[in-house]
Write a structure and sequence with these properties.
The chain is globular, with a radius of gyration of 20 Å. The chain is built from eleven helices and ten strands. Helix 5 (178-188) packs antiparallel against helix 8 (255-281). By secondary structure, the protein is of the alpha/beta class. A hairpin with a 4-residue loop joins strand 6 (145-150) and strand 7. The strands form two sheets. It has a five-stranded mixed beta sheet, sandwiched between helices. A five-stranded mixed beta sheet has the order 8-7-6-9-10, sandwiched between helices. The structure holds 5'-O-[(R)-(carboxyoxy)(hydroxy)phosphoryl]adenosine and zinc ion. Keywords: Acyltransferase, Cytoplasm, Iron, Metal-binding, Transferase, tRNA processing.
Length: 355
């Protein structure tokens, strides 16, 4: 049978994403971001994000249809992120998807944003001219896989046995997301928002071993079930205290060394736990997703440690790692192909939707 033509809508944070896929083939991936509007606040402002989605969604949808050269009436299904994310932002995408589904009489699938990130890895076709990185560059997506999803909004470790119906949350951040920590530490160092790319650039000229920042979350034995959780607020506080002491004693803050040492601590924690999960659970594959995957040290450490552990590393092109509609469409297409019943129109936006 013909593979399903699916439209995906993503509005969980500050990216308005519309993607179109045919089965696992990417046809369009258009993204509008309200990032610039949040810059002066040092973080995503929910109300601003929601309003920006409302403005950007129609033009983004039109651009995606033009890119894929498909007509709305030809779609087999529509998929939309219903959570987790910012409530007001999610509602814009959910509302638009319902309106499309009703008017076009198409089946509608509500999907989980985090599982969507994993869906990015099954896409093939012209991936915006970017190639896959990692050991398994030319191999097809396989189960099971561990997925490490790190962005400004989430830091989650998943065990994916099957994209459609067997995704388990192993751990997540108990406070700040990794990207959020980058943004906050950047601010502390006087670097502009978003801070991740800034710290990454500055760190190149610093010594990652200059300051030994805490790796966070050392848990007592009875907390064994939380062994895959993350915590970054202690690290952030440690950096703040270090910088403060430096300033108090009249010394100039060695920004490059602080950035390099902080980046090292974050990369170390993320990759240590991800590879540990692969080893302990006997899963020989690790998939990375989310905006923090752009970080040079995170990628390098993942490559080194996965190679040493015999784990195949998969990193989709960055345009599919950051929030986008194509990954939501890809997951939707999997649900259609698996014969799943559509979600109907009764669902809402769920800011804390579990995987
Ligand atoms: O996935 P994403 O584009 O959007 C959401 O968070 O929804 O991720 C953005 C986050 C920001 O916190 C940003 O600072 C971080 O990813 N980021 C980075 C880098 N590039 C983006 N963090 C560290 N190093 C980078 N090179
Ligand atoms: Zn995301």
């Amino acid at each position: 049978p013909r593979e399903p033509l699916v439209l995906g809508i993503e509005t969980s944070c500050d990216e308005t994403g519309v993607g179109i896929v045919r089965g696992t083939t990417l046809l369009a991936n258009v993204i509008a971001s309200s990032m610039d509007e949040h810059a002066r606040y040092g973080g995503v402002v929910p109300e601003i994000a929601a309003r920006a989605h409302l403005e950007a969604l129609t033009p983004t949808l039109k651009a995606a249809l033009a890119e894929a050269q498909v007509d709305l009436h030809d779609l087999d299904a529509i998929a939309v992120t219903s959570g987790p994310g910012l409530s007001g932002a999610l509602m814009v995408g959910v509302g638009a998807a319902k309106a499309l589904a009703i008017s076009l009489d198409k089946p509608l699938y509500a999907v989980n944003h985090l599982v969507g990130h994993v869906g990015a890895d099954i896409l093939s076709g012209d991936l915006s001219g970017q190639t896959r990185a990692g050991d398994s560059a030319d191999t097809a997506f396989e189960y099971p896989t561990i997925a490490l999803l790190v962005s400004g909004g989430h830091t989650s470790l998943l065990l994916v046995r099957d994209l459609v119906d067997d995704v388990e949350l192993l751990g997540e951040t108990i406070d700040d997301a990794a990207g959020e920590a980058f943004d906050k530490v950047a601010r502390l160092l006087g670097l502009p928002y978003p801070g991740g790319p800034q710290i990454d650039a500055v760190a190149v000229n610093g010594d990652p071993n200059a300051i030994r920042f805490p790796r966070g979350l050392s848990l007592p034995k009875d907390m064994e079930k939380h062994r895959y959780d993350f915590s970054f607020s202690g690290l952030k506080t440690a950096v703040a205290r270090w910088v403060e002491q430096c300033r108090d004693s009249g010394q100039e803050v060695p920004v490059a060394d602080v950035a390099a040492s902080f980046r090292e601590a974050v990369a170390d924690v993320l990759i240590t736990k991800a590879v540990k999960a692969c080893r302990e659970l006997g899963v020989p594959r690790l998939l990375l997703g989310g905006g923090v995957v752009a970080n040079a040290r995170v990628r390098q450490l993942a490559e080194e440690r996965c190679a040493a552990a015999g784990v195949a590393l998969r990193i989709p092109p960055l345009s599919l790692c950051t929030d986008n509609g194509a990954m939501i469409a890809a997951l939707g297409a999997q649900l259609v192909s698996a014969g799943r019943a559509p979600s109907g129109l009764g669902f809402g936006a769920d800011s804390t939707l579990p995987v």
